[in-house]
UniProtKB/TrEMBL annotation:
Disordered: region residues: 266-286
Keyword hit for Membrane: yes
Membership in a protein family: Belongs to the ABC transporter superfamily.
CDD domains, sorted: ABC_NrtD_SsuB_transporters
Molecular functions (GO terms): ATP binding; ATP hydrolysis activity
Keyword Magnesium among UniProt keywords: no
Alphabetic keyword roster: ATP-binding, Cell inner membrane, Cell membrane, Membrane, Nucleotide-binding, Transport
Protein name: ABC transporter-like protein
Polar residues bias (residue ranges): 266-279
Residue ranges occupied by any ABC transporter domain in the UniProt entry: 16-247
One Pfam match: ABC_tran
Length: 286
């Protein structure tokens, strides 16, 4: 399937499959700029994949293409079916929480469902349950202005997850939050994926966040953008992986060095020697 019908439900097993994706824009001087030229990748069930790349690499464009906000000039983007044969569903969460101030927290959480069908009593019960799981039970009937940034972002996360997506796209969702809140939300996503098998694609400038949360990191670079490196993340943690235990894993610095060097356009080292590189801890690439 190509062009206008390029985002489609499919019987492929992967929740997301991108094949031979090409897209570009017209630059201000009228010349054509190719952002993607036959890009290929896929995302597995319950997999968390981070996409990192320099500013302008094409990360947001890729999300807009996957979510259907943009129509690819050519190529195929396939969203796999659910196990029960129903069509898969993508949910897209942005950096801005986009709360409607005149709606309560509960009503904001239900907005995602409302956009495609009538809200049922069961939905309200699920919304209250999920808000409670994210520590928002007591403020479900309050208005967003009384919430902190982290709480608002959790409401946005609830709204994203209530539509029961097979694939969640997160575009720098935590970048405006303080470090502690950020780690807590990273934990929420890691736990969600482990619990429900939801697949997640995350765009971030934060290398630590990418490593801590992901099963795989894709390094996007060049023009047209291509996958410059693809790193399977395997971390030795005591117990299940969390945002903190991931950062304490012995392999963490090696991965950090490889991605950091990749972003700077240096040859990526696939060996542990990369860990020797002098990288500022907590560096955020931009
Ligand atoms: N609608 C558009 N018209 C023309 N050019 C565009 C349009 N949207 C994006 N671009 C260009 O495409 C390129 C990729 O943009 P995109 O926003 O996808 O990058 P990004 O990797 O998400 O950047 P950042 O990390 O800064 O958010 C940029 O050069 C941008 O200027």
């Amino acid at each position: 399937m190509k062009g206008s019908n390029a985002t489609a439900a499919s019987t492929f097993s992967e929740p997301l499959r991108v094949r031979q994706l090409s897209h570009g824009f017209e630059s201000p001087d009228g010349s054509a700029v190719t952002i993607f030229d036959r890009l290929d990748f896929s995302v597995g069930h319950g997999e968390i994949v981070s996409i990192v790349g320099r500013s302008g690499a094409g990360k947001s464009t890729l999300f807009n293409l996957i979510s259907g906000l943009l129509t690819p000039q050519s190529g195929v983007i396939s969203v796999g079916q659910r196990a029960d044969g129903e069509a898969g569903r993508i949910a897209y969460m942005l950096q801005k929480d986009l709360m409607m101030p005149w709606r309560t927290v509960l009503q904001n959480a239900l907005l995602g469902i409302e956009l495609y069908r009538k809200v049922q009593p069961d939905d309200v019960a699920s919304a209250r349950q999920m808000l409670a799981r994210y520590g928002l039970g007591a403020v479900a009937d309050a208005y967003p202005h009384s919430l902190s940034g982290g709480m608002r972002q959790r409401v946005a996360l609830t709204r994203t997850l209530l539509v029961d997506p097979t694939l969640v796209l997160l575009d720098e969702p935590f970048s405006a939050l303080d470090y502690e809140t950020r780690l807590a939300l990273e934990d929420d996503i890691i736990a969600l994926s482990a619990r429900s098998g939801t697949s997640v694609v995350l765009v971030t400038h934060d290398i630590e966040e990418a490593i801590a949360m992901s099963d795989r990191v894709i390094l996007l670079g060049g023009r047209p953008a291509r996958i410059e490196d693809q790193i399977e993340i395997e971390l030795t943690t005591h117990g299940p992986r969390t945002a903190v235990s991931a950062r304490e894993a012995p392999e963490f610095r090696g991965y950090h060095a490889r991605i950091w060097n990749g972003l700077r356009g240096q040859p990526t080292s696939r060996s542990a020697e990369a860990a020797q590189s002098s990288i500022p801890a907590g560096a955020v690439h931009d």
